[in-house]
């Protein structure tokens, strides 16, 4: 029945009939609008990119303005300025007022207010280049630029990653880690932990959030030397340890966190890393995994569309479902494995586990 119905809907004659018939025209229109949004999605994202790159939203944060006044600040003709403002208003980033000026809308204000979002939007210029030929990307026939932006995922050793490259990715990680830390610490209770080591912790943004809530914890940051050298740990009492997780991890912590680490890497690398985490932890030690996850049996837009393609362009990692991650953790000897959904799963979800005591 389902197969017959889908073939019927796929008929142009049926589509023409459904668009006119009173009992089906509403559903047909809704499907048409959704399809148009899918077709137009890239144009929408480029309008957002232009608004951020040109500083339109931050200019309107100072107050409403007309297209003529905005054109001088944006460096565009008045016609193109008006076109951009009309587009951002259509997308809900700005609003057109009755007198023809434009003002910041709630979504535009959130774009400014969400930590690291503007930096990530600008960074997407690299990602979009890799999506120009999605079929070639799916066939693994491209040389993605995104993989060059995040060179550490391809297995380069710490000494092979240039300091300026490490600085670039560390800055972006630091700017986007705030929301991940918020969601993680809302979901996972660190009560009882004595010493937490964040492996692949970048500039220490997650650990600084931990320090703010759990001031008594001993904290350690572990990452590549070029990354640790750029860590902003002043006055945070965070011990910085440099190295690669392709080698044995330092012992001592009774909890190890992997925040946005697993989806960057292949199954073999993750299996090896989880084994090293297990060896480094004492009996009863805790593992904390936090990252955006795929939906598994219930595919999601964030996990199975965005992060699936993003990790594909990185060439080594992939978005995994909570069930897949839990299985990998179990195979490496952990027990008491628990999944913690968050209020914003498009940012992160969490899994914890324990080494048998």
Describe this structure in words.
This protein has 357 residues and is an alpha/beta fold. It has 16 helices and 9 strands. It has helices at 2-9, 12-20, 25-54, 56-61, 67-74, 78-90, 106-113, 117-130, 134-138, 145-149, 163-187, 205-213, 225-228, 267-280, 301-314, 322-331, and strands spanning 94-96, 102-104, 195-199, 218-223, 238-242, 255-259, 286-291, 335-340, 349-354. Strands 5-4-3-6-7-9-8 form a 7-stranded mixed beta sheet, sandwiched between helices. Helix 2 packs across helix 3, helix 3 (25-54) crosses helix 8 and helix 5 crosses helix 6. The protein is globular, with a radius of gyration of 24 Å.
Q: State the helicity in percent bands.
A: 40-55%
In total, the number of strands is 9
Lateral strand order in the biggest sheet: 5-4-3-6-7-9-8
Main sheet: strands, sense, barrel: 7 strands, mixed
Oligomer: single chain
Mean pLDDT: 88
Distance between the termini: 54 Å
* Low-pLDDT sequence parts: 156-161
Secondary-structure element sequence?
HHHHHHEEHHHHHEHEHEEHEHHEE
Summarize the structure.
By secondary structure, the chain is α/β, with parallel strands linked by helices. The protein is 51% helix and 13% strand. It contains 16 helices and nine strands.
């Amino acid at each position: 029945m389902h197969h017959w119905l889908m073939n019927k809907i796929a008929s142009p004659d049926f589509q023409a009939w459904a668009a006119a018939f009173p009992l089906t025209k509403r559903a047909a229109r809704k499907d048409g609008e959704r399809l148009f949004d899918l077709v137009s999605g890239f144009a929408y994202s480029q309008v957002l990119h232009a608004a951020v790159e040109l500083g339109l939203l931050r200019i309107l944060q100072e107050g409403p303005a007309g297209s003529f006044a905005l054109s001088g600040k944006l460096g565009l003709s008045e016609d193109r300025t008006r076109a951009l403002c009309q587009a951002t208003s259509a997308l809900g980033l700005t609003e057109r007022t009755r007198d023809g000026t434009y003002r910041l809308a709630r979504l535009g204000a959130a774009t400014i207010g969400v930590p690291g979002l503007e930096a990530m939007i600008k960074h997407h210029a690299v990602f979009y280049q890799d999506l120009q030929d999605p079929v070639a990307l799916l066939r693994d026939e491209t040389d993605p630029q995104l993989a060059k932006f995040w060179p550490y995922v391809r297995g380069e050793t710490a000494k092979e990653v240039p300091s300026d490259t490490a600085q670039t990715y560390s800055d972006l990680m630091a700017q986007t880690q705030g929301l991940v830390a918020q969601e993680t610490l809302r979901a996972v209770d660190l009560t009882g932990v004595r010493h937490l080591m964040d492996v692949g912790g970048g500039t220490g943004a997650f650990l600084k959030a931990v320090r703010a809530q759990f001031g008594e914890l001993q904290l350690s940051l572990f990452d590549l030397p070029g990354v640790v050298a750029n860590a902003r740990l002043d006055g945070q009492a965070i011990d910085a340890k440099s190295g690669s997780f392709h080698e044995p991890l330092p012992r001592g912590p009774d909890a190890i966190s992997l925040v946005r680490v697993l989806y960057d890497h292949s199954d073999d690398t993750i299996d090896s890393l989880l084994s090293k985490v297990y060896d480094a932890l004492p009996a009863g030690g805790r593992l904390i995994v936090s990252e955006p996850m795929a939906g598994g049996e219930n595919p999601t837009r964030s996990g199975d569309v965005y992060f699936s393609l993003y990790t594909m362009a990185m060439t080594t990692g992939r978005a995994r479902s909570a069930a897949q991650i839990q299985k990998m953790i179990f195979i490496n000897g952990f027990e008491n494995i628990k999944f913690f959904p968050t209020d914003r799963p498009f940012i992160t979800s969490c899994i914890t586990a324990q080494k048998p005591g």
